[in-house]
């Protein structure tokens, strides 16, 4: 069974992001980037399924400019067998990414797409579901447990009301949530080995995809700042502060 | 003139309060608001939706295939109705239900989606949070229809009004059979619902065990009539189930009072509580980032503070 894993290069999750003063976006130049943490979980899951013998080949895919190759190299160091870089210099929004990944999924004949439930930059939470819709295949989002069998998968999903379980026929899209696994620490030999693994470059045109009309970003701003609070010294002071705000009687 | 189609979220024959928040967002778009109820037998849910102030009509789509909330089954029906009703907007609350469903609807309609609308500037111009709420982007879309999810913490629930008419409709959408619902494991609780509670008490890693949650957090929550939440660390450590997680990837809430106990305040957690009216933090580390957002902070050992606080309230 072949698995496709789509990964995204994002500003590292430890970076305190800065909004540009002209409102045109956030500062990304000179800022540490890494693989979207949810995509790392997707990558780890594919590798574990391969180690269990459920998956035979893992293909990593990304869409974006030249620097995205770093992210693909990380995916290869995790254990992807090869990678596909859909080259696109401009901003890529979820619908376009989904159209491209759907085309790759079809071309590769992959049985499952693993991807993070959302990227921590745009927090859109759309791409996986859109791929599934475009291919008219099943989706299991927010996965916290995945069992792959011949032709189907049983997936436990983290939903607002608890843990939901679905059975889906393959091919399917599975988007990964935090508690699915803990991604491995990449070791130097694996990072070195990844440098020799093949990365194929393709364009949207090669895939027969036309970029979708984007949602326009008018401006980016800082969130409203909360007023400065007070620090109290005792429980009695805390209780009277709560009473002062009318929160307790 | 806008015509907004809202997909109702429901379970066990009851309308989820998330839908009433989507109605409030829809009213800011102007125009008619219709709520569509997809269920096996949606009569009771449709009856509740019909009483939400600001709703013009309720569409009840009964189909045995709609028994469980499967995005793959519901999406083609929503997409067909969006076209049939000439909807200018298709909205759903940004719960896990809405986030699972709506991108599938958008892709079927061939339009982009706007996720997590937090402010409506106009029919096609919105604010939405990115980077865990640390950058607010104003977006404008030319797509038709506008497909979007609504950030629940940003909108109050619509109140009740006079009941409007319920129209039974059918769709001819071809429904897939590739997805089967096996069940849900829910933790039943008599407490207020975390998502809509006016008061929330949350515990973090410092609680150190599930027993301590019961011993220290529960009595305080009982005293305050509060729902109970948790940080990711507390859920990951197995102290409490996943449905109690508050934060960027858990529940994003906007209670009147939020009490964070033994929670350091990672940006991912803060993303879930920024809209709380009053944040109280109790933590032994005076440098913890939670104090940067807290309205009232108390530095100290929670195991000593909580019993005293609970007894003095």
Report what the structure shows.
The complex is a heterodimer of chains A (249) and B (313). With 249 residues, chain A is of the alpha/beta class. Chain A is 27% helix and 31% strand. Chain A has six helices and 13 strands. Chain A has helices spanning 37-51, 68-78, 94-108, 127-135, 188-194, 235-244, and strands at residues 2-6, 9-11, 33-35, 57-64, 82-87, 112-116, 138-149, 152-159, 162-169, 172-176, 199-203, 216-221, 230-232. Chain A has a nine-stranded mixed β-sheet, sandwiched between helices. In chain A, strands 2-3 form a two-stranded antiparallel ribbon. The longest helix of chain A is centred in the N-terminal third of the chain and has 15 residues, at 37-51. Chain B contains nine helices and 18 strands. Chain B has a seven-stranded parallel β-sheet, sandwiched between helices. Chain B starts with a strand and ends with a helix. Chain B has helices at residues 18-27, 43-49, 71-84, 96-109, 210-224, 232-236, 267-270, 290-293, 302-312; strands spanning 3-7, 10-11, 14-15, 32-39, 57-62, 89-93, 113-117, 119-122, 125-130, 135-140, 146-150, 166-168, 179-185, 199-203, 227-230, 257-261, 278-283, 296-299. Chain B is 27% helix and 28% strand. Chain B has 313 residues and is α/β, with parallel strands linked by helices. In chain B, strand 9 (125-130) and strand 10 (135-140) form a beta hairpin. Chain B is elongated. The interface between A and B is large, with 82 and 85 residues. Strand 9 of chain A pairs antiparallel with strand 13 of chain B.
Largest sheet of chain A: 9 strands, mixed
Low-confidence segments of chain B, ≥5 residues, pLDDT <50?
Answer: none
Strand order of the largest sheet of chain B: 7-11-6-1-4-5-12
The level of helicity of chain B is 25-40%
Q: Could you give the order of strands across the largest sheet of chain A?
A: 9-8-7-10-6-1-4-5-11
| Series of secondary-structure elements of chain B, N-terminal to C-terminal | EEEHEHEHEHEEEEEEEEHEHEHEHEH
* Tally of alpha and pi helices of chain A: 6
Mean of all residue-level pLDDT scores of chain B:
96
- Taking all Cα atoms into account, the compactness measure Rg of chain B is 21 Å
